Amino acid sequence: MNKIAIMGASGHVAKNVYYQLRDNNKIYQFSREEIGDPQGGYFYYPYSYFLDYDDYDIIINCVGHGNPADIEKAGADLFFITEKYDNMAIDYLREHPSTKYIFISSGVVHNDYDIYKPNFYLMSKLNAEAKHRALLDLNIIDIRLYSFFTRFINLDAKFFMAALIKSIKTGTEFVLDESIMVRDYINPQDLTTLISICVKQNFINDALDIYSLNPVEKYEIVKYFQEKYHLKLKWVDFMNSFSSVGKNIYRINEKLKMKASNLGYVPKFSSMDTIREESKYLLS
Fold first, then answer.
1. How far apart are CA 10 and CA 33, in angstroms?
2. Positive or negative CA dihedral for 276, 279, 283, 284?
3. Environment class of residue 23 by beta-carbon count within 10 Å: exposed (0-12), middle (13-18) or buried (19+)?
4. How much of the chain, in percent, has pLDDT values that exceed 90?
5. In angstroms, rounded to a whole number, what is the distance separating the alpha carbons of residues 47 and 42?
6. Which of 32, 161, 184, 187 is least enclosed by beta carbons within 10 angstroms?
7. What is the total count of domains within the chain?
8. What does the pLDDT average to over 198-204?
9. Under a CB-based contact definition with an 8 Å cutoff, are residues 183 and 216 in contact?
10. CA 251 – CA 247 distance, rounded (Å)
């Protein structure tokens, strides 16, 4: 049994990490506010208690905005938010070097960087990863998550799948254009598999790109929901992207896959597997 600190516990990714790891580990959940019922397992400690414990085996940093609209609004504040909690974890590692620190990064780091049109989300992740690689004596793993859709998603978030599910639940038309969109939705079980693999390493300081068995194109997604859940569609000539922090077409080359693969990571689920399974909990 590991003792695990989860930062950003009220967020989408963190809820899945907790759900997957809760049975066989002692988990401390941290959030900006004290929330929940200690007996129910969903109690979130305020960050002021983070340094009070001296025996975390693992720290998992899931801090960050869960809605692209909030990311746009935050702007340069993303630097300070990311830095604050990242430094909190690093300070802990300096005192407890055997602890493994897993930072949930993003595939956005592979996007082109334009100094004249700054993407603060991209820059905050790049800055964190660069700092981590400089701390060569600490166990720090950056897991680059591309797309994530699960039963815990905020349906009001500006994401393709959130908007699609909300359209079905409300019986309204789902508006989209004919542009190509490819996503790689990571299954929560595959994410926690990679986390477990990293934890088992004697020492590791690296960035890993996580991937599913197969990415999915949006036409396959909407066809499934039309047939299964009678999704209503409205096609338009052009509309803004659902997510403003990434690219519309997902691509990961074999070289980027190799690092996680060499550690023993083999995904069990395709993007479409995850969509079918997780949507059941939202549409039942």
1. 9
2. positive
3. exposed
4. 69
5. 15
6. 32
7. 1
8. 96
9. yes
10. 9
The CATH number given to whatever domain includes residue 213 is: 3.40.50.720
Is 36 within 8 Å of 45 (Cβ atoms)? no
Name, in order, each residue with C-beta under 8 angstroms of 229's C-beta and a sequence gap of 6 or more.
168, 279, 283
Indicate the pTM of the whole model: 0.92
Q: What is the 3-state secondary structure (H, E, C) of the chain?
A: CCEEEEECCCCHHHHHHHHHHCCCCEEEEEECCCECCHHHCCCEEEHHHHHHCCCCCEEEECCCCCCHHHHHHHCCHHHHHHHHHHHHHHHHHHHCCCCEEEEEEEHHHHCCCCCCCCCHHHHHHHHHHHHHHHCCCCCEEEEEECECCCCCCCCCCCCHHHHHHHHHHHCCCEEEECCCCEECECCHHHHHHHHHHHHCCCCCEEEEECCCCCCEEHHHHHHHHHHHHCCCEEEECCCCCCCCCCCCECCCCHHHHHHHHHCCCCCCCCHHHHHHHHHHHHHC
Q: What angle do CA 65, 67, 73 make, to 5 degrees?
A: 75
Q: Which residues contact 240 (CB under 8 A, 6 or more apart)?
A: none
Nearest Cα residue to 59 out of 84, 23, 30: 30
Spell out a b/e string for 155-182, using b for 16 or more CB atoms within 10 Å of the CB, else e.
Answer: eebbbbbbbbbbbbeeeeebebeeeebb
> Structure tokens of 233?
């569609």
Range of the domain at 58: 3-283
Return d(Cα 136, Cα 146) in angstroms, integer: 25
